[in-house]
Amino acid sequence: MNLKDYIKSYFQRVGWIPPIINLVCFIAPIVFLQNSSFSEKEKILLYLGIIGFIYLVNYISFIFFLTKKILPEEEIRSKMRKRYRKGDDRMQSYLFPLPLDDENYEIYGRTLTYNPIGGDFYNFLTDPQGNYWIGIGDSVGHGYLAGIFSMMIFQNMSLLVKHNLSPYEVIEQINEDLLKRTEQNPKINPNLYATFLLIKIDKEGNLEHSGLHPSFVIHQKKREKQNHRNRWKICIDYHEFYFKKCTRQK
């Protein structure tokens, strides 16, 4: 940032108060000296002294601004934002699932979430019956509040898929749990919501799904060769999320 940008930033942050104070400090002595009994030479010297004093005060305040000795609130907020972003990366590393790749399915490709922490989330799980569960969603807003709300959905999904339920039943129970939590804890924002798509697939490729985020396309391509399994992939628009059945030789 060059000197011009620093000056512009200085006046953007301090507002109109310093210019008004400068104007008052400049006009008031002029009015006083005009009505005083000082000689012309003394008035000129006093004018120059006042101008020099005003310049010195502004110069010192600007130097303090450059060295971050004044207006610390913005600097504190900036440090807090950096600290939060550092924590965001850790939160995703701790909670988001590892890539899925076995003899039946693999994650074909995915994009990064928009924000290091926010509403975007995804989950890959297998249940005791060997079914595969894929959940992808987006909570309203950005930042920690949206991220925590997403993790509430994330946690419920991880628990409920083990109970031999359909995707529709899992989403219904997630909604019931979130509603109950909101009613019992008034501090939780009741206006929070999320889009959520939940997919259940068995090893043979039979698929169930419920919910929407925000569009959902299934593409299936059968092969006649006996040494290959059926090949298909699920495409969830917007996040460019692909889940592909492997085409491994028998």
From TrEMBL:
- Domain of life per record: Bacteria
Entry keywords, A to Z: Hydrolase, Membrane, Transmembrane, Transmembrane helix
Record has Hydrolase as a keyword: yes
Gene Ontology molecular function terms on file:
phosphatase activity
Which Pfam family, giving just one, matches this sequence? Answer: SpoIIE
PPM-type phosphatase domain ranges (all copies): 128-225
User: Quick check: keyword Metal-binding in the entry?
Assistant: no
**Listed transmembrane segments:** 16-33, 45-66, 132-154
The UniProt entry, under PANTHER family, shows: STAGE II SPORULATION PROTEIN E (PTHR43156:SF2), STAGE II SPORULATION PROTEIN E-RELATED (PTHR43156)
Name of the featured protein: Stage II sporulation protein E domain protein
